[in-house]
Amino acid sequence: MIVTRRAWLVAMAIVLTAMSPAFAQQQFNWQQAKGSQLRVMLNKHPWQGAIEPHLKEFEALTGVKLVTEVYPEDQFRAKVLVELTSGASSIDVFMSMPAQEGLKYMRAGWLQPVDEFLKNPALTAPDYNWNDFLEKTRDAMVIEGKIVGVPIQVENASLMYRKDVFQKYNVKVPTTLEELEAAAKALNGKAMTDDGQPGYGIVARGKRAAATSTFAAYLHAMGSTWLGPNREPMFNNEDGVKALDLYGRLLRQYGPPGSENNHWYEASSIFSQGKSAMYTDSNALFPVIEDPQKSKVIGKVGYALFPRGPKGQYGSTVAVWGLAMPKTSQNQKAAWLFMQWATAKEQVLAVQSEKGVLGARDSVWKDAKGLSKVPADLRESLTVGSKVGTPLWNPPVVAVAECRDAIGAAIVVSIQGGDVRAADNKAAADVKRIMAETEKK
Amino acid sequence: MPVFTGPSVLAVTLLMAFPVAYTLYMSAHSWFASSLTSPQFVGLGNFRRAFVEDDRFRNALWLTVYFTGLATLLQLMLGVAIALVLNRPFRGKGLVRSIFLLPMVATPVAIALVWMMMYNPTLGVMNYLVGLVGLGPYKWVSNAAVVVPALVIVDTWEWTPLITLITLAGLATLPIEPYESALIDGASSAQMFWRITLPLLRPTIIVALLFRAIDCLKTFDIIYVMTQGGPGFASETLNVYTFQVGLFYFHIGYASSLLVILFALVLGVSLLLIKVRRGAW
Predict the structure, then answer these.
(1) Does B39 contact chain A (CB < 8 Å)?
(2) For chain B, which residues make up each domain, given as ranges?
């Protein structure tokens, strides 16, 4: 009796899940904003390059016309900021990294949260499935409790390592920070280039502000974070100082000379020239490392989850590019349709399988097609990292650029072998002052 | 007549006087371009903050003076020496002169990128070159202690020709009589250089110095491209810092006051040099 009832329920559930999306798909009205026009601001970025050929499909589906503008990153940020500051912007959708500008834009009242759009079945297709986005990529789009946009691309601080070198010298691939240092020490100075030249144990960014993005992973793995519960700096606590000390020590003792001036392009070129055994940075750099034109380590690199801390904490950062909508947009319904379409499974799968853009949807990573342009083992560092990691690759403050410089200065001191604790305390004092100045109500 | 000068007076007012006046006005305010609050009047607060609280500013001020002093001194000595050599008659002089002026006409950003590659501690050619004479290896622009001299070398490579050019022009106008009488009096060539050539060239050299000093005080391109003020803040001059404050932190008020300070510095140095040019050596 019970068995049959359960079986009946299961059958019912199967029928419902199988049918309802298709059924609702027909119901969902993609044409509801037909005839309107959207001004979309895009940053020059692999996602923008991959989605552009598909934009016509959106126009055909919805009858909404898209006017896109593309700018290189620095100009892009300045352009969006200036327009939003003016209060008379005609932007309808723009690419945004909430961890970079989210809090500033939110407090300024420029962002239109999309919570209500997501909940509304008349505006959101039933098969959109918000929960399909990897857990922390959803968190990364939340600012002060509101969802400020949808993720289009995700990247994680991760460990890239030379599989051949680790095998040759019989070293275990690090899964903890302790093993990371041991491996860096063991492999530093060992022969690893094509012509048998020695290389370094590890390479990473050391340039002031740029280094903070990678340092964030060490900080969180060590068990610290940027700000405490009352928004006071806490990255200078015991664990924080340990993380800062480790970062500097690794680069000073087992890294290339001059790390203090290395941004990701210097660091990644040292690694792709075969001159380092390990590289901690964003896994979205894989196209640089696997570039047949420039790289000498194609196929030799493993992509691993960022090593865990002494208490098992995860360090992976979850850096997300998303699409956001300004409050001033006059076409919010159409703008939401575009945001929704661009991040629906079909499009995420398309850009990931065609151009290797790292999507944030779990289902796409489970789809064999979604893995075709991405190194096989990158899947783990991304999907696991984006579930257990932290969206805080930046300190969650209004004046992100200024705080990154203050923290970056301490990282440089640590690489140079200076007084780490003093530098960390100074950075904390600076961050406190900057926050007091820029976050006063 | 005033009617015809009218448009240009208007243009100058709009394009030069207004921005300067507005910068002065902003320098007395606290304003973040990104916030919704309007500028708040803080009087001399920004200047107090710069000189009393902001160690990054004091560091930048010192580095500006250090960079300018070192660069102008080096360029002056090299530039005048090269001009004296090029002023002598020799075969292919015209060609050598033209080649020598090439660094000056190259694009600063391109120059900076090339030097950046040469300075690379792992892959660059500079460590090989200094290695030939038993020095190094250095970390060049990645070493806090070496970064300013390393940048001065780039600036010197680029701008020494300007001093040479101006000095050559000065040399061409020197009268011949003092040398004739000196020869008759039995002066050595060293004496002629120190007692005749240099004093006569002084006004010319000071003009060249003035150009270079003003330019060095506000050098931006090569520093920004090569180090962005790093490592840490070890090459962050006043201009680079101001750019950061204004266009990355969007602290427009404070950036304006920093610009006023830079303006005062440039003006002060210029007035000093002009005074030296007019007065006794």
Answers:
(1) no
(2) 2-280
Q: How far is CA A87 from CA A79, A83, A110, B17, B37, in A?
A: 13, 7, 8, 28, 13
Q: What angle do CA B116, B121, B124 make, to 5 degrees?
A: 60
- B233 in A contact zone (CB under 8 Å): yes
Q: What SS3 class is residue B41?
A: strand
pTM of the entire predicted model: 0.87
Q: Which two tokens stand for residue A46?
A: 């692999």
pLDDT tens-digit readout, B152-166: 999 999 999 999 999
pLDDT tens per residue across span B174-194: 888 888 898 898 888 888 888
Q: Decide: A178 and A310 in contact? Cβ < 8 Å.
A: yes
Peptide bond connecting A326 to the previous residue in cis, omega within 30 degrees of 0: no
Of A207, A258, A273, which has the smallest distance from its Cβ to B139's Cβ?
A258
Please give the CATH topology (third level) of the domain spanning B2-280: MetI-like fold (1.10.3720)
pLDDT at A398: 92
Q: What is the ipTM of this complex?
A: 0.81
pLDDT value, residue A43: 95
Give exposure, A380-403, as e/b (b: 16+ Cβ within 10 Å): ebbbbbbebbbbbbbbbbbbbbbb
- Taking 70 as the pLDDT cut, the residues of chain A under it are 1-26, 441
Angstrom distance (rounded) from CA B32 to CA B253: 7
- Per residue in A419-439, pLDDT (tens digit) is 999 999 999 999 999 999 888
Does the pLDDT of residue B3 top 80, yes or no? no
Confidence at residue B280, expressed as pLDDT on a 0 to 100 scale = 54
Phi and psi at residue A280, in whole multiples of 5°?
-105, 120
Give the mean pLDDT of chain B.
Answer: 89
> Distance between CA atoms of A256 and A340, rounded to whole angstroms?
45
Name every residue whose Cβ is closer than 8 Å to that of residue B56 and which is 6 or more positions away in sequence. Answer: B233, B236, B241
Nearest CA to CA, how far is A227 from chain B (Å)?
20
Cβ within 8 Å of residue A438, ≥6 positions away = A397, A398, A399, A402, B32, B35
Q: φ and ψ at B7, to 5 degrees?
A: -55, -40
Q: How much is the pLDDT for B2? A: 64
Phi, psi of A305 (to 5 degrees): -60, 145
Q: Which residues are registered as beta bridge partners of A94?
A: A41, A324
- Say yes or no for a CB contact (<8 Å) between A261 and B231: yes
Is the CB of B227 less than 8 angstroms away from the CB of A109?
no
Top pLDDT among B272 and A185 is at A185
Mutate to test the interface with A, among B52, B250, B251, B254 (most CBs of A within 10 A): B250
